[in-house]
Amino acid sequence: MSTLTEVAHTLVSNGRGILAADESIGTMSSRLESVGVEPTEENRRVYRELIVTTPKLSDSVSGIILADETLRQNLSNGQTFPEALADIGVLAGIKVDTGAKPLAGAPNEKVTEGLDGLRERVGEYRRLGATFAKWRAVFTIGAGLPTNRAVRANVHALARYAGLCQEGGLVPIVEPEVLMDGGHSLAQCQQVTRAVLRSLFDELALMRVDFDSMILKPNMVVAGKDSSEQPAVAEVAQATVDALRDTVPPTVPGVAFLSGGQSPEVATNHLGAMQNLDQLPWELTYSFGRALVGPALDTWRGNHGKWDAAQKALSERAVANAAARAESKG
Ligand code: 13P
């Protein structure tokens, strides 16, 4: 049995990254509907089977984050998803939060829920084959936002989640996402990202979370998607690395970025540009959802005749991101 620290290192090393396929039933259903697929439990299962059976996925993917529903489903060959992943050398993860809900006293801001009963669920997920977990908090940039209230409520929940996971034997992926929505500048995103990460690591320390047995999954520092001033790739890379260097303890094994609505190519370019900056204490990798699986979903559209083409589309994104990582060692 690997220790939590070993699992954390496995997730972020050897040039590989993490694939996020843990969309909630609601989100996955809308993604399926957007490509003309009926949002049934079976179609969600088939789509996840397409992902995990993609040939050679384990060359570039170290772990796949699954949703609760998927963890309880089987592939057509009868294997559970964690069993199928174990066979190809990929770790199974589980999203354990139950979603972001409106925060009382903070209009337009949300707090992520899911702490009640989490200790018991962590035990169950371990028995079902998961070795790591994910919890996502969201922060909105706007006039007077994010508020201290929303930042503190969310980092508190993230830290309690991380502590419960480590106690129960799962490596926590801690995901504070500063959203791209809005017209804010790169500098504003950097300032908010720094403040959120600083507050997060204070809280993680308070809750006695072991930094060497967790993964940080932050946003990249980008301008808001409605901003007319979009920074160059090199500026995003530098702004992101500077924010991380100021806030992330060196004992954290890895930083695995979310894609957050960036196009697949742009997310990959940003990741590649960061590898060329100065020596960093942590591995920098990907934990993309949309930027990895978007093209595959768009190719598949529920058509069995497009199965192989869709897997090829996923494979291409995974290989491109692994190659972007390798730019560091060049
Ligand atoms: P995106 O890469 O699509 O932002 O998803 C990553 C994720 O896991 C969100 O929680």
TrEMBL record:
Presence of keyword Signal: no
A Pfam family this chain is assigned to: Glycolytic
TM ranges: none
InterPro entries: Aldolase_TIM (IPR013785), FBA_I (IPR000741)
Gene3D superfamilies: Aldolase class I (3.20.20.70)
GO MF annotation, one: fructose-bisphosphate aldolase activity
Key words, A-Z: Glycolysis, Lyase
EC class: lyase
Database matches in PANTHER family: FRUCTOSE-BISPHOSPHATE ALDOLASE
Name of the molecule in the record: Probable fructose-bisphosphate aldolase class 1
Source taxonomy: Bacteria, Bacillati, Actinomycetota, Actinomycetes, Pseudonocardiales
